[in-house]
Design a protein that fits this description.
about 300 residues; 5-stranded mixed beta sheet; 1 helix; elongated
Length: about 300
């Protein structure tokens, strides 16, 4: 295929995809048939695509060979993403180097979105270096996943086109008979972010592994992070061991009556390790250092005499 675009002006064109230029890949061109591809000194301005690629939409897998320079791709619009340039995938082949041209101020619903691809991979946004989390049974484990395109940009899905992509989390354990209860283990993407704010895990102490799946999307999206490990630990000394459905252990922080100032002056603790009921009237209100009295209302002083 030979393509020579030099000193052209593409302005106020409209299409479903590729407002000014749509390059398909319906025919495979061998190396012997390669022809010059030059896109130089062109202006793409105020073009509009109903869906993708306000100025240019490309599926042409030799466009990366094009010589491009001094093209201005500005103030174009798209209805979904890729207001300036868009390719579904394989950006290293289907599009030219965006650094050689002026691509700016292209928008989707007034938000800047100069170039994009379909969703490519998902990453877990976490400060955990090893991808390991330590919790007790019954704890919440908030997680955030980010959806990226092939330009390594978060898919800012202003029009919510990809909002029906769901993630589902399950836990794996070596013993198949192990009972696990998960709550809040699904979420959908909103502006490229899928947040598990109410993920709650009930499981007996042990080492578990995340199994995460994508729902409502048939194209490939990779998971770009290490395996996630969840250590379910035994209850700590300030928690009470309780058993729920399927005899699964879970931990509750000891509750004391309203007179116990647990925010800063006291700590609520169970009376013993064998307590099986979280009763505010039975649990112990223990004063923190510097406080004393029945309900820790008096400051304690050290007598140095």
């Amino acid at each position: 295929m030979e393509l020579r675009l030099d000193s052209n002006v593409f302005i106020q064109n409209m299409a479903t995809n590729g407002g000014a230029l749509y390059l398909s890949n319906k025919q495979n061109y061998g190396k012997s048939e390669e022809r010059p591809l030059n896109i130089l000194n062109n202006s793409f301005k105020f073009n509009k695509a109903e869906n993708f690629g306000g100025a240019i939409y490309s599926e042409f897998d030799q466009l990366h060979l094009a010589v491009t320079s001094n093209n201005n791709i500005t103030y174009n619009k798209a209805g979904i993403i890729g207001a300036g340039l868009f390719t579904p995938s394989l950006v290293q082949r289907n599009l030219f180097n965006v650094k050689n041209d002026n691509i700016a101020n292209n928008t989707v619903n007034s938000y800047i979105n100069n170039y994009s691809t379909k969703p490519s991979y998902i990453m877990l946004n976490t400060t955990s270096k090893e991808g390991t989390f330590n919790i007790t049974s019954g704890d919440y484990l908030p997680l955030k996943y980010l959806l990226y395109d092939e330009y390594n940009s978060v898919v800012e899905d202003i029009t919510k086109y990809y909002s029906e992509i769901f993630l589902r989390i399950e836990l794996k354990y070596d013993e198949e008979s192990t009972r696990i209860h998960l709550f809040g283990n699904t979420c959908s993407f909103n502006n490229g972010r899928c947040e598990f704010n109410k993920l709650r895990i009930f499981a007996n102490p042990g080492v578990y592994f995340f199994s995460i799946s994508i729902e409502n999307y048939n194209e490939e999206i990779k998971f770009n992070y290490n395996e996630i490990i969840v250590n379910i630990n035994s209850c700590n000394e300030n928690q009470i061991k309780l058993y729920g459905k399927d005899d699964i252990l879970y931990c509750e922080n000891a509750k004391c009556n309203e007179k116990c100032p647990v925010d800063n002056k006291a700590t609520c603790k169970p009376t013993s390790k064998d307590v099986t009921k979280n009763d505010p009237e039975l649990n112990k209100c223990e004063c923190n250092i510097g406080w004393e009295g029945n309900y820790c209302t008096k400051k304690s002083y050290i007598n140095f005499k």
